[in-house]
Design a protein that fits this description.
Elements lengths: L15 E7 L2 E3 L5 E3 L3 E7 L8 E9 L18 E4 L4 E3 L5 E7 L2 E8 L6 E3 L12 E6 L4 E3 L2 E5 L7
Parallel strand pairs: 5-12, 5-13
Antiparallel strand pairs: 1-4, 2-3, 5-8, 6-7, 6-9, 9-11, 10-13
C-alpha cells in the first residue's frame, strides 16, 4: 500500500522551517495492532508572495484635549523618531505619519524618541494609563497591520512664552 501525505500552506503560515512526521497504525483482521515506521519531511517556508510580514503604521500628533486620539485641529508632528524593538528606526513625514512595512509578526514595541522633539513632551492621556508612556506594544498578526500612535504636547518652560 502507498500512502501519500501532503501539506497545505496558507497565507498566514509563519516563515521558517518545520518537520512533519507521519505514522500509520491499524488493527489486522486477527486483532493485532500494527504500526508503520515513521516518515518525515522538512517544510521550509520562505518569504515570497505568501508573506507573513505585516505593517506597523501610526502618527505623532499634538493632543490638545488629552484623549489620545487625533481630532481635527490637532496637527501631526514632523521629523519625530520612533525606534522599534527589532532595531528599525523611522521618522515621521510632514503630517506626523509613519509606517514600518515588512515587520515580523508577533508582539512588537516602538518607542518615541523625545530628544527628536525639542519643545514637546508626552501628552497626558486622561482615559488610558498605558497611553502615558513613550513606548507602545502591539500584536502584529502574520500579514496584518497594527496602529501605534503617540500624543505629544508643547512644553512650556519658565520665562518663555
Amino acid at each position: 500500500m502507498t500512502i501519500i501525505y501532503g501539506v497545505l500552506i496558507t497565507p498566514d503560515a509563519i516563515r521558517g522551517s518545520g518537520r512533519n512526521i507521519a505514522i500509520a497504525s491499524g488493527v489486522t483482521p486477527a486483532g493485532t495492532t500494527v504500526s508503520s515506521s515513521s516518515a518525515s519531511f522538512v517544510v521550509q517556508i520562505r518569504p515570497g508572495i505568501l508573506s507573513d510580514c505585516g505593517t506597523i503604521l501610526g502618527r505623532v500628533f499634538v493632543d490638545k484635549n488629552f484623549d489620545g486620539e487625533q481630532q481635527p485641529g490637532e496637527p501631526g508632528v514632523p521629523n519625530s523618531v520612533i525606534f522599534f524593538d527589532d532595531g528599525n528606526r523611522v521618522v515621521t513625514d510632514a503630517n506626523g505619519l509613519f509606517s514600518l512595512p515588512y515587520a515580523l509578526p508577533g508582539m512588537r514595541s516602538g518607542t518615541l524618541d523625545l530628544t527628536s522633539l525639542p519643545g514637546y513632551s508626552l501628552a497626558p492621556n486622561l482615559y488610558r494609563i498605558e497611553g502615558n508612556s513613550q513606548s507602545r506594544l502591539v500584536k502584529l498578526a502574520p500579514g496584518g497591520m497594527a496602529r501605534m500612535n503617540f500624543a505629544v504636547t508643547p512644553t512650556f518652560r519658565e520665562g518663555q512664552r
